[in-house]
Design brief:
Layout: H1 2-24, E1 37-41, H2 44-54, E2 58-62, H3 77-85, E3 88-91, E4 111-114, E5 123-125, E6 142-147, H4 155-172, H5 177-203, E7 209-212, H6 218-224, E8 227-231, H7 242-254, E9 259-262, H8 269-278, E10 282-284, H9 299-314
Parallel strand pairs: 1-2, 1-3, 3-4, 7-8, 7-9, 9-10
Antiparallel strand pairs: 5-6
Helix pairs in contact: 2-4, 4-5, 5-9, 7-8
This protein binds zinc ion (ZN).
Length: 319
């Protein structure tokens, strides 16, 4: 209750400031084009999806700034103002961008697409097992009742999401139904190409097991028959305890794990330590992408860059 009141008070204050800036800076507020649908996405892959399907008929904004992890993001007052303008909001769902929910007021009239509601979900694996069980065997228990949220990491899930976004955009903007259908068809064809690249590469892999930084590759591994054998951070953003790390390093030494993954949104030091202590290579895989990085500034290019990085360690063994 107090949160809601504080939010309202904040909104009023911000509206006043915004109006003053608008009046004072008259004519400089060119960002908003009334002809365009205002689409807000929580994370960069969804922003890119909106851009691809919405083409020239939408104005898309991404809430999560470059380099940030959605798991440990704290929304800003600016995010609330951006959301107030939105006509369509794209989010992943609980576990990635649950921070969006408290920002949506009860009378929010924007349409909302929650990607986790569109695709088949995989259970969240509890990686916090004890490595000391007999023979190194471990049960990858499923966390009770929770699902892994990283659905966008499977290119075929992105196809489903692209089609759905096109349908929702068409409902909001009936004039461009054919355009949205065409752009979605085109994007889906390119996602199928990405899927084929992954299938082709996987067919040549001699190893497919890895230790992720966190469980961001659950859907990717499931799609292509790879094994996300363990994770460094069971809860993203929370440092594992030293005993867990020691057990993880022993596990890697005794297993067929091909690499340890670092992610650009998290400090790589921990992954570097695990990699050097266990003697397996470190590979950086980016689950989000980055508008400031020319090789990672679209979902497809980012996923291609990830595949190229993994080919180095999954590929045929060289003598
Ligand atoms: Zn994640």
């Amino acid at each position: 209750m107090s949160l809601s009141f504080r939010k309202k008070a904040l909104l009023v204050a911000l509206s006043v400031i915004f109006s003053i800036v608008f009046v004072v800076g008259c004519g400089r507020r060119a960002e908003r084009d009334d002809e365009l649908l205002i689409v807000v996405a929580t994370i960069y892959p969804l922003y890119d999806l909106a851009r691809e399907v919405g083409g020239d008929y939408i104005q898309a904004t991404c809430l999560l700034p470059p380099g940030a992890s959605p798991h440990i993001y704290h929304p800003t007052p600016q995010d609330i103002m951006v959301l107030e303008q939105a006509e369509l909001v794209l989010c992943v769902g609980e576990g990635v961008d649950g921070w969006l929910t408290p920002m949506l007021s009860a009378d929010e009239d924007a349409q909302m697409i929650t990607m986790m509601e569109l695709v088949e979900l995989l259970p969240a694996v509890d990686y916090s097992w004890s490595f000391e069980e007999e023979g190194g065997e471990h049960d990858q228990d499923h966390q009770h009742g929770t699902c892994d949220p990283h659905v966008w990491m499977d290119p075929l899930n992105m196809k489903v999401m692209a089609r759905y976004v096109a349908v929702e955009l068409s409902k909001l903007d009936g004039e461009h139904i054919e355009d949205y259908r065409r752009t979605a068809d085109d994007y889906i064809a390119r996602l199928e190409g990405l899927d084929e690249e992954y299938e082709r590469a996987t067919a040549g892999f001699s190893r497919k097991s890895f230790v992720a930084f966190h469980s961001s590759l659950t859907y990717l591994a499931e799609r292509y028959g790879w094994e996300q054998a363990a994770v460094i951070e069971v809860a993203p953003g929370v440092n594992p305890d030293p005993r867990y790390l020691a057990e993880l390093i022993d596990f890697i030494k005794e297993s067929d794990v091909a690499c340890v993954l670092a992610e650009p949104q998290f400090n790589p030091q921990l992954a570097k330590t695990v990699s050097s202590e266990s003697g397996v290579p470190l590979v950086t895989v980016d689950p989000i992408g980055d508008p400031n990085h020319p090789d990672r500034d679209t979902y497809i290019e980012n996923m291609q860059a990830n595949l190229e990085a993994l080919k180095e360690v999954f590929g045929e063994k060289r003598d």
